[in-house]
Write a structure and sequence with these properties.
Keywords: Membrane, Transmembrane, Transmembrane helix. The chain is mainly alpha-helical and 506 residues long. The chain has 2 domains: 276 residues, no CATH class; 130 residues, no CATH class. The chain is built from 15 helices and 8 strands. A hairpin with a 2-residue loop joins strand 6 and strand 7.
Length: 506
């Protein structure tokens, strides 16, 4: 059979050919989506999962935090900031103990910020299935208990820190350097092309403005979580003859000893008591009969002796030094409100109701709480949180004169950005007032604790609910409108300077 040859085609050969001028709707949408996804997904660094959690459950939790990163990026910054402060405080504490010659503290491996983050994310655990923990009847219903930074701090004080190297921790981490590099290149391109467009007088779309806002937040998260390991699934199990007794003490001191699934993570720091809070401690020559449990009581304490005195801070934590001398205590002639905060005066001997310390948790919380260490008061941290919210709103206000399909969408955009900035400034001011005024602080604490129901408290509840609803609506609108506005944009929004098209990007 004869094979027919195709006719000869005269091809025209050319050299370098530049990309077409401008951009299309799909390329704009794809570029912003890729940048947004890379920033949010790669910036999230979750704590260790609880024992028995599957990969699907862990990925779903990762997805929930990514959604939070889209609609509330400053909340992720807040979590990263608190974890960074806790890791730095713990690292500084361990180094100081090591420099002071504390025995067995980090005797071989230098403690670094990687260790601090690893400890804060639940990297050290008590496992009730180990040989040491099985030497006696079971006393903990959970299979594993993760140590909090406060718990690791106690181990450092006792000279019981496990000796683990940075390389071991990094080997557990799933951080991908090439993935971070791709993210940095894409973020850099997004920022540069927006700056060039402004310089040459071309408009920036609302979607680009919203993406840049998330880029700024992602860069802050990268800086704060730079040393935090990522995607670690298996912790370091603590072993030794001391683990059983230490686990029992930490368990009794923590809220996990009394909490249930209903109360968990819902006003957790206010509503859950611990087993340790029912123990009376007497640092004196009294017999062991004076160390006993007591029933919780909300009744006012009555003075039984005319010259009696009570301490306003009559609790004792693991890091408090016991001084039998009354001169070493700050005593005021005042009666505190409840027995859980009073120091009982019995002749020359005084006793404490032991305080709660979040030393272990069943599962790391990711969201910052009392289990993290800090070197500044909560109101100052609140100012930082709301200041980041103000910055996020200010980025969107910068697009005040952006062109929208309709005037009503334009005004809703402006109102949403302005309301977010207003809320951030208002709550920053309230936190500053709470920091400067003790009465404001206690008033707000009473509202959160929910011990009393006053008309003023109810009014504040209502105002906070209304304001919070508007805040959520404003946040959601900014994200949704950024995509909806693509349906109708000025033609100049698709023009691109030739120098931008030559920069590698996705």
């Amino acid at each position: 059979m004869e094979i027919q040859r195709p006719e000869f085609i005269n091809y025209t050969f050319v050299g370098y050919v530049p990309d077409p001028d401008g951009r299309g709707t799909l390329s704009l949408l794809f570029s912003c989506l890729v940048t947004l996804s890379l920033c949010v997904w790669s910036a999230i660094h979750l704590d260790l999962p609880p024992y028995g959690e599957s990969d699907i459950e862990y990925a779903y939790r990762y997805l929930k935090w990514s959604v939070l990163g889209v609609f509330g990026p400053e909340l992720v910054i807040w979590a990263a900031w608190r974890q960074f402060i806790s890791a730095r405080t713990l690292t500084k504490y361990v180094k100081e103990r090591s420099n002071n010659g504390q025995r067995n503290v980090n005797k071989r491996q230098q403690w670094t910020m990687v260790h601090g983050f690893y400890a804060g994310m639940g990297g050290f655990v008590f496992d009730t299935a180990t040989t040491e923990m099985l030497q006696g009847p079971p006393f903990v219903p959970q299979r594993r208990l993760h140590l909090t930074p406060r718990g690791v701090q106690l181990l450092a004080r006792c000279g019981l820190l496990p000796d683990i190297s940075v390389e071991e921790i990094k080997d557990k981490s799933k951080t991908d350097g090439s993935g971070k590099l791709i993210c940095y290149v894409q973020v850099g391109w997004m920022v540069v092309q927006a700056a060039v467009r402004v310089a040459v007088g071309l408009p920036i779309t609302p979607l680009e403005t919203n993406t840049i806002g998330h880029v700024v937040c992602a860069l802050i998260n990268y800086a704060l979580w730079w040393y935090k390991p990522k995607w670690i699934k298996e912790p370091t199990i603590l072993r030794g003859d001391w683990t059983r007794e230490m686990c029992a003490f930490m368990y009794m001191s923590s809220q996990v000893s009394q909490e249930n699934k209903v109360s968990r993570d819902v006003l957790r720091d206010f509503g859950v008591k611990t087993e340790m809070s029912g123990v009376l401690y007497t640092p004196s020559d009294y017999s062991s009969e004076n160390a006993r449990s007591h029933e919780e009581s909300n009744e006012d304490i009555q003075l039984t002796r005319p010259n009696g005195a009570f301490a306003t801070k009559g609790h004792m934590a693991f890091n408090d030094e016991c001084e039998p001398s009354a001169q070493a205590l700050h005593i005021e002639n005042a009666v505190t409100k409840t027995t859980t905060s009073a120091m009982r005066d019995t002749g020359s001997n005084r006793s404490w109701w032991c305080a709660s310390e979040e030393l272990v948790v069943e599962r790391p919380r990711n969201w910052p709480g009392d289990d993290l260490l800090r070197h500044m008061q909560g109101h100052l941290m609140g100012i930082i949180l709301w200041s980041s919210s103000t910055v996020y709103g200010a980025v969107h206000i910068a697009g005040w004169n952006e062109i929208f399909p309709t005037d009503i969408e334009s005004w809703f955009w402006r109102a949403s950005g302005a309301y977010i900035v207003f809320s951030g400034l208002l709550w920053s001011l309230l936190n500053l007032m709470g920091h400067l005024s003790g009465s404001v602080w206690w008033f707000w604490y009473g509202i959160l604790e929910g011990a009393e129901r006053k008309r003023s408290h109810v009014l504040i509840y209502v105002l906070c609910c209304i304001g919070g609803t508007f805040y959520v609506v404003a946040r959601v609108y900014l994200v949704l409108e950024a995509f909806i506005s693509l349906r109708s944009l000025p033609a100049s929004a698709y023009d691109s300077p030739s120098c931008i098209l030559t920069v590698p990007h996705i």
